[in-house]
Write a structure and sequence with these properties.
single chain; 547 residues; mainly alpha; 2 strands
């Protein structure tokens, strides 16, 4: 028996190692391909090899973004069983790449969010290139480590920490804009709290209006179109503001027959324009969903599980739109520093902004998609199943929180992380489930009150029994009362014991896994300093090699 068990373990180990080697092979093939392409296509440029190595690191960073950050977009949908893992990876890979290539930033600030003052380099391109390369590699290594530890962290914060650390190593502490860093530190609290509160609010409103109703089917037909329309409004607004900046002028030209669009000819959409576009789509979606539900011949059962199925299709759209917007925005984390290095190598100088060549954008887009396909499932499982149990309604609430929080925060000028928002949303729905559990069952205070009353009765019964047992000449009625008192005392003790057990069980129920929460929060807190320290070390190593 033991020999058979050992044999099975060996087979599983060989199978796993074979899969790991295959993944590693694909990743290395992509990185070497990028290195070769960059080297051959920029043959006549000085420092050509340096640019090729930077492109390889950019490809490595892009794959780590795909492996870690994209899980937040599709993890809840997979955890709720709205999508299979394969379907989620395919949808996310296509829409991440599309977002990066179609709507990725036309001009990316190479010094992410103004973290460091590039004038401190004194126009010397070499230390600037070394700093950007160190920042990119440090962020990629930290993301790789976090993915191995199954901790979803912010890729934006990773590259921010990398740029800060490399900048300090190159030109001292005065190079850093500490006001910007303080805002980024504030986002560690702002992002998850906002995401958690909004996700919990939507989940509670869905439960109150549909799940807690006696006739769930009738309530669903009334309210599901409203919730899906709100989701459509939020996502179109979010996508317009965050994902269509690059192609906005082309959209204006294409739709200039609409009075609204013809009024605004700015380079990027305003909040009002985005809200109105979202409102138009929301109205169309509302009536479409309502008609679909009204004409649906399939008989829905009056259960929560049946209502859950109505949120499956909206979740698929949510995952796709989140992936598109993420690809459009976070591709800059992989290729922003690479674009800076490319600009410095090609032009021999430093600029605060750098146009991104198509091949650099392609490295980011393909790298994110490949990293997701090869190493994404680990983090998708963590986000979808290892923090709290998710169903379609809970996952829908998290997706809503992701879009609405970014809209609110961007208009208030608050720095937020899409990763922290999504994970905060998962925390929010989990803790709401705990709260509702305590509300739905007898509360601990009520249980304690019951114990107090029953103890009072128990003492009274025991006192009465003690008096009766002291009497030598008991009547028949008194003997019967003694027997009755023994039974009453046994019943009271049994009730007190069961109530105490109920209190203990109620306290033990935890819908959010505390170990997962602690690990993720710890990873968030050390992301910036860890990436900064690593980037500083790498900068000195690169500088030592080059000098």
């Amino acid at each position: 028996m033991e020999i058979q068990t050992m044999k099975k373990l060996e087979e599983e180990a060989l199978k796993k190692s074979g899969t790991d080697f295959t993944r590693l092979g694909f990743a290395l093939f992509f990185m070497i391909g990028v290195l070769t392409f960059s080297f051959l296509s920029n043959g006549g440029i000085p420092n050509n090899m340096f640019l090729a190595v930077a492109a390889l690191i950019g490809a490595y960073m892009a794959m780590n973004i795909g492996a870690n950050d994209v899980a937040n977009n599709v993890g809840p949908a997979v955890g709720s069983k709205a999508m299979t893992m394969t379907m989620a990876i395919m949808i996310a890979a296509v829409f991440e790449a599309a977002g990066a290539l179609i709507a990725g930033g036309e001009v990316v600030k190479t010094i992410k969010k103004g973290i460091i003052d590039i004038s401190a380099f004194g126009g010397n391109a070499d230390p600037f290139i070394w700093a950007m390369m160190a920042a990119l590699l440090a962020a990629a290594l930290w993301l790789n480590f976090a993915t191995m530890m199954r901790a979803p962290v912010s890729t934006t914060h990773s590259i921010v920490g990398g740029v800060m650390g490399a900048g300090i190593a190159a030109a001292g502490f005065s190079i850093v804009d500490w006001g910007t860093m303080a805002k980024i530190a504030a986002s560690w609290v702002i992002s998850p709290v906002l995401g958690g509160v909004i996700a919990a609010a939507f989940l509670f409103s869905i439960k109150k209006s549909i799940v807690f109703q006696d006739d769930k089917v009738a309530a669903a037909k009334k309210w599901v179109p409203v919730f899906v329309a709100v989701m459509s409004w939020a996502f179109v607004t979010y996508l317009t503001l965050k994902g269509l900046k690059k192609i906005w002028p082309q959209i204006v030209e294409l739709l200039n027959f609409l009075p609204l669009i013809s009024i605004e000819m700015s380079k990027k959409p305003s909040l009002l324009t985005a809200l109105i576009m979202g409102g138009i789509v929301a109205i169309v979606v509302f009536f479409s969903v309502r008609m679909r539900l009204a004409s649906n011949k399939k008989v829905l059962e009056n259960t929560k599980a049946s209502v859950n199925t109505l949120f499956t299709i909206p979740l698929v759209f949510a995952a796709a739109l989140l992936s598109f917007a993420h690809g459009a925005n976070d591709v800059a984390n992989a290729i922003g520093p690479l674009a800076a290095i490319n600009d410095a190598v090609v032009n021999g100088g430093i600029s605060s902004k750098a146009s991104i060549p198509l091949w650099v954008m392609g490295v980011g887009a393909l790298g994110i998609a490949l990293g997701l396909g090869l190493y994404g499932p680990k983090l998708i499982k963590t986000v979808g199943t290892e923090i709290t149990e998710l169903d379609q309604i809970r996952a829908f609430s998290i997706a809503m929180a992701a879009s609405i929080t970014v809209i609110i925060a961007s208009q208030l000028g608050l720095p937020v992380s899409s990763t922290h928002i999504a994970i905060g949303g998962v925390f929010g729905v989990g803790f709401l489930r705990e709260y509702l559990h305590l509300s739905d069952t007898t509360t601990i205070e009520e249980d304690r009150s019951i114990i107090k009353d029953e103890k009072s009765n128990l003492h009274a019964y025991k006192a009465e029994l003690s008096k009766l047992e002291k009497k030598d000449d008991k009547t028949t009625t008194q003997y019967e009362r003694v027997v009755e008192l023994y039974k009453l005392i046994a019943d009271e003790e049994k009730l007190i014991k069961s109530t105490k057990k109920h209190i203990k069980q109620t306290k033990k129920v935890e819908y959010v896994k505390r170990d997962a929460v602690k690990k993720i929060i710890a990873a968030w807190l050390i992301t910036v300093p860890a990436a900064a320290v690593l980037a500083a070390i790498l900068f000195f190593m690169i500088k030592g090699i080059m000098l």
